[in-house]
Design brief:
Blueprint: E1 2-11, E2 14-24, E3 29-33, H1 40-47, E4 55-60, E5 63-64, H2 69-72, E6 75-78, H3 92-102, H4 108-117, H5 131-144, E7 149-153, H6 161-178, E8 181-185, H7 189-192, E9 198-203, E10 206-212, H8 213-219, E11 220-226, H9 231-236, E12 239-245, E13 248-254, H10 259-267, E14 271-274, H11 277-284
Parallel strand pairs: 3-8, 3-9, 6-7, 7-8
Antiparallel strand pairs: 1-2, 1-4, 4-5, 9-10, 11-13, 11-14, 12-13
Length: 285
């Protein structure tokens, strides 16, 4: 388990994270969401030991991660700029060789398979690749790394629809085999909603939500019906938004509805549907 306890982080005198507490369970896929500047990337850099100047504790299986090489060998932050400029003129196959030397659990056979599946020219210089293929190389590094905690920061940047689909499909396949812990930060929430198991939302420097996606989907409900019939809901539930739809009204809530309440509403002709995670995120942030 990867845990964060009482985490605070400031740059100069500007606080960016305040009293953050999270437990990332082994074998689960998390979505880390937040608006630009919310602190997502900073949090991932702290988890992966890129940033070591902070208050609080980050532990992997009960052992402090900060400046602990053995712990950080099990955690990898994957992002589009992870290849240092000093080696960007190397051939892709050379970069993979470097990774195999630096990462104790590097999976060479899997790496070769992924290179073939994503059609990467390993004889090409990394710097000469398209932005999409550069990102694919970093994603292949992440998937081949063998680490138990993989942090993907905006993994679909520059990818076309086909490669986005292939990446998430492969991620899920490997996750099923490896039972690793995966954290995905993405602005394209629609594409990860069916990939992640838990959703974490950062707002105002701290954790606004940390819930299983199934629980969120039970609470995030849009109701459409006659406005007079929806008044009770408006009075008794946590309403996110109310809209007029001609003669009807639409009320969006984030709250619990019992089976009895749901039956009563549907018997009155009120239509219930799940609010997509992207839309809920807009409401909450």
């Amino acid at each position: 388990m990867l845990s964060i306890k009482n985490l605070n982080k400031s740059f100069w005198k500007t606080e960016v994270l305040h009293n953050v507490n999270i437990e990332f369970e082994e074998g689960k896929i998390y979505g880390l969401l937040g608006r630009n500047g919310a602190g997502k990337t900073t949090l991932m850099k702290i988890l992966s030991n890129y940033i070591v100047n902070f208050e609080g504790d980050v532990e992997l299986n009960g052992k402090e991660v900060k400046e602990n090489q053995k712990a950080t060998e099990e955690i990898l932050l994957v992002h589009k700029d992870m290849v240092p400029s000093a080696i960007a003129d190397e051939k892709v196959k050379t970069l993979f060789q470097y990774c195999s030397q630096l990462m104790p659990k590097w999976n060479r056979k899997l790496n070769e398979k992924l290179v073939h599946e994503f059609e990467i020219n390993t004889k090409a210089k990394y710097a000469k690749l398209s932005e999409g293929n550069k990102n694919l190389v970093t994603l292949i590094i992440g998937l081949s790394s063998g680490v138990t905690v993989k942090l993907f920061d905006e993994p679909s940047v520059g990818l076309d629809a086909n490669n986005r689909y292939k990446f998430y499909k492969k991620l899920l396949e490997l996750h099923e085999e490896q039972k690793d812990t995966v954290v995905i930060s993405s602005h394209i929430i629609d594409e990860i909603e069916n990939v992640i198991e838990d959703v974490i939302i950062i707002k105002d420097k701290t954790i606004l939500m940390n819930e299983e996606v199934s629980t969120v989907q039970e609470k995030a409900i849009a109701l459409i019906g006659e406005e007079s019939l929806l008044k009770e809901i408006q009075m008794s539930k946590n309403v996110l938004e109310m809209e007029k739809l001609g003669k009807l009204a639409k009320v969006s809530i984030y709250d619990s509805l019992s089976l009895e309440e749901r039956k009563k509403l549907t018997d009155q002709g009120i239509e219930l549907s799940v609010i997509p995670l992207q839309r809920l995120f807009v409401h909450l942030t």
